[in-house]
Specification:
The protein is mainly beta. It is built from no helices and eleven strands. Strands 2, 4, 5, 6, 9, 10 and 11 form a seven-stranded mixed β-sheet that branches. The chain has a four-stranded antiparallel β-sheet with strand order 1-3-8-7, with no helix packed on it.
């Protein structure tokens, strides 16, 4: 089992920045990668970014490239999402998730943190 706890959400004006954190505990050795997802009201959950736990290889969706950066601190078992130049359309609940080595699926999820960007 892996437990994930997000923090860092809040209300920010358009153009502002926020940094989300996701602290992992438990069987972190079972993680292949960690990802950030988001879900806006009335919309389906959307993948945002991922980082491999071992090598730190990253991937970001096109709509956040150049604005968001995923990173991780293995010593702290924590993954971050630095969000700059925020737009109102970035408003959503943001979730972190852990992809396991055995299934290559995102098996574990955090509780989510609200990000609201005002225009």
């Amino acid at each position: 089992q892996v437990q994930l706890v997000e923090s860092g959400g809040g209300l920010v004006q358009a153009g502002g920045s926020l940094r989300l954190s996701c602290a992992a505990s438990g069987r972190t050795s079972s993680m292949n990668a960690m990802g950030w997802f988001r879900q806006a009201p009335g919309k389906e959950r959307e993948f945002v970014a991922r980082i491999t736990w071992s090598g730190g290889t990253t991937y970001h969706i096109d709509s956040v490239k150049g604005r968001f950066t995923i990173s991780r601190d293995k010593a702290k078992n924590t993954v971050y999402l630095q969000m700059n130049s925020l737009k109102p359309e970035d408003t959503a609940v943001y979730y972190c998730a852990a992809q396991t080595i055995t299934t290559m699926k995102y098996e574990y999820w955090g509780q989510g943190t609200q990000v609201t960007v005002s225009s």
